[in-house]
Amino acid sequence: MPDLSAQPPGAPPTPVATPETATAGHTHTAPGGAGLRRGLKLRHIVFLGLAFMAPLAVFDTFGLVSEATDGHVPLAYLAVLVAVGLTALSYARMARRITSAGSVYTYAGKALGAPVGFLVGWSATLDYVLLPMLNALLAAIYMGAVLPAVPAWVWVLSTVVLCTALNLVGVRLAAKVNVALVIVQAGVAIAFLVFAVRAVLTHGRSFGTTGFDPATVGLPDLFGGASLLALSFLGFDAVSTLSEEAERPRRDIPRAILLIVAAAGVFFLAITYVMQTLFPDVSAVGDIVGASPQIARYIGGAAFQTVFVGGYLTAVLGCGLTQQMSAARLLFAMGRDGMLPRKVFGRVDPRTGVPAANVLVVGVIAASAVFLDLGSAASLINFGAYVAFAAVNVAVIGFWVRDRRAGRPEARGAAAAVLQLLLPALGLVVNVALWISLDTPAKVVGVVWALVGVAILALRSGGFRRPVRTPDLAE
């Protein structure tokens, strides 16, 4: 594959905005001339990550997971938080080392080789590209609880169109919009928590070990329910795709990753603990999929249910913006490297600095939400999430091995072995266990998707006869 970064003889070198010298508004120019504009500060990145997962995402799958775990949603979140926390440390380490937009695709490519990087990135596209679809589906479910006469496809398409339009305008506008949206969501979530605590006390319930006792749930049921919850934390993973648009990526991306996981973990545990205490048996609510709007009505009446659903719509908009944004940038990184058609996926709009074609492709896929149900969509998305999480942990170990062989001091000693070998290995084991716990249809579709990636790789490498280019962005 030709090196597109080569210049004609005698031509002046093309300036590249490095992570250390980039400032707001400057462009990170990658091989091939396609680049993204830097302009995101730490607060923008954190709010984009929170908006991606949405503070109200905890309500999305509460009914499904409560049914699967026999009323142990808080314990399921705790299990996922262990996997996510260990993986977040690995993401933070990789984000500090590699500052390109490719996220897990680039991390795995740098550490384990370009073919592995592509296959991991391809598997990760399953969750990145399908998340906006899940988001549109949730919009239809929640709005259907308030306005059941309106067809679901109306909510799906209107959500997709609005998020696509805002993403085409530019990343800074999306970031500013998300700050306001996350604040609104946080306010609604806090109000829900207050009403729920009041309802627990009013109905004579007591706060104890409800939902946390591992002796009262089987391990397969616990991991089966927990396997659906990775999507609740995907905001920390998504911000790693914004490295080329961060003003100080080596500092701010790792900080944002850890801040997002810590804030979300505490919030999810608190909300689900109170909800599970109030409804130990979620079947009492009636509608398992739409349990949260019904619980909102139960604790605060019809007026609060309306406020709750309105707050959730802001979550849908914030999620849709950042999910589509991150998916478009992962496709951009793969297109820029020639692993996907460069003329389609490896280009940015010169006026807005946005990979516009990618945004439109993701929008079209999101519109397919009219054909899926919530459980199926969540399982499909989590297949790609656990592959990505496992791969990043392996990438950290791969770099540790490489650095030790090169005699680098940062890879020597007991502390390095713990941080770069033991913890990533533990994260790998937990993520693999959760991946195994996904339902069979999700694993079948995921494996088929991975095989399509192998076919693309074979095509791009001439039947594996030509080497695949490693992403040649600076570490």
UniProtKB/TrEMBL annotation:
Region feature Disordered, mapped onto this chain: 1-32
Keywords in alphabetical order: Membrane, Transmembrane, Transmembrane helix
Pfam (any one): AA_permease
Annotated Amino acid permease/ SLC12A domain residues: 44-388
Protein location: Membrane
Membrane topology summary: Multi-pass membrane protein
Superkingdom: Bacteria
Transmembrane intervals: 45-65, 71-92, 104-124, 136-165, 177-197, 217-236, 256-275, 295-321, 352-371, 383-401, 413-436, 442-459
UniProt feature, compositional bias: Low complexity: 17-31
UniProt KW Manganese keyword: no
Keyword match Plastid: no
Xref: Gene3D superfamilies: Amino acid/polyamine transporter I
Protein name per Swiss-Prot or TrEMBL: Amino acid permease
Lineage: Bacteria, Bacillati, Actinomycetota, Actinomycetes, Kitasatosporales
